[in-house]
Design brief:
Layout (H helix, E strand, L loop, with lengths): L11 E3 L3 E4 L7 H12 L7 E2 L5 E4 L6 H27 L8 E4 L3 E4 L2 E4 L5 E3 L4 E4 L2 H10 L4 H19 L2 H10 L3 H30 L6 H11 L2 H9 L12 H14 L13
Parallel strand pairs: 1-5, 5-9
Antiparallel strand pairs: 2-4, 3-7, 6-7, 8-9
Helix pairs in contact: 2-4, 2-6, 4-6, 4-7, 5-6, 6-9, 7-9
């Protein structure tokens, strides 16, 4: 992806120099809501902790050159999403609210609760912020063989896709419906939500190429490989040795890469109704 020397976003909140004091307390409805939000929006709920009396204090930031370059890269990607979705919303007669990208290390406080890096990147609709520990991309390379800067761009664009869903009222509706469904039916609904976020990431890539001519040869394949590498079937086979479709929450490798590709090839939001279409 052509990104160096290009504008970064002003909506990046760098908390990598913040340390969070924790006092772990018992669960409750607050924990359940937090876990559900992260579960719905792409993270691992085991990384969520409810805490009381927590404080974040500034500390020295020691970063490598590679980490700083990655931080600059995701800032440029965020800026691109702002311009693309701003244009799409404006053409529809609406105003796009720009989300904030929070960079953190190890653990973080959000309006949805406290989370550790183990939860993975996640979007919190309560504060309209995307939370990202940059070490996640090291894990992608080491565990799943996912390489390339556009694989990183895809992850960011997927989380921004959840913000678009939030602004369109889709997240609220899905959360309300899921509360009334069985676990299996709820999982099926969540899969459709995630596949739509993949589709929206593809739509962003489609317009980014048209607006900025920023996508290089091989970039889309990097994103498609990333999407396929984190399909539920692939992950379950890798970590538990068998595939249990009723427990899927994000979609298969073929579904994830397929909807990402569809968004990229069409750029047409009307093609992204994953809740009605055969997936």
């Amino acid at each position: 992806m052509k990104w160096q020397g290009r504008r970064g976003s002003d909506n990046v909140e760098d908390r990598r120099g913040m340390s969070t004091g924790t006092k772990v307390v018992g669960g409750g409805i607050g924990t359940l809501v937090i876990v559900l939000l992260v579960y719905l929006l792409g993270g691992d709920p085991s990384g969520i902790i409810e805490q009381s009396g927590s404080q974040q204090s500034a500390g020295p930031v020691q970063t490598t050159e590679a980490e700083e370059q990655m931080a600059q890269f995701v800032s440029v990607v965020l800026a691109d999403t702002e311009e693309v979705w701003g244009k799409i919303f404006a053409e529809a007669g609406a105003s796009y609210r720009k989300p904030t990208l929070v960079l953190f290390r190890d653990q973080v406080e959000s309006a949805c609760g406290y989370a550790t890096a183990a939860s993975g990147p996640f979007y919190c609709p309560a504060d309209e912020k995307v939370y990202l520990d940059l070490s996640f991309f090291d894990d992608l390379r080491a565990r799943y063989g996912v390489y390339g800067d556009f694989a990183i761009a895809y992850v960011v664009a997927h989380e921004i896709g959840h913000h678009v869903q939030n602004q369109m009222g889709i997240l609220e509706e899905v959360q309300a419906q899921r509360m009334r469904l069985s676990e299996v039916r709820g999982n099926q609904l969540t899969v459709r939500l995630e596949l739509q976020a993949d589709f929206l990431a593809g739509v962003w890539a489609h317009y980014a190429q048209r607006m900025f001519n920023s996508i290089e040869e091989g970039d889309i394949n990097e994103a498609l490989n990333a999407a396929a590498s984190i399909g539920d079937d692939v992950l379950q086979k890798k970590y538990q040795g068998r595939v249990v479709p009723d427990s899927f929450t994000h979609g298969t490798a073929a579904q994830r890469s397929g909807w990402l590709r569809k968004g990229w090839e069409t750029g047409d939001l009307n093609q992204g109704d994953t809740f009605s279409a055969a997936i």
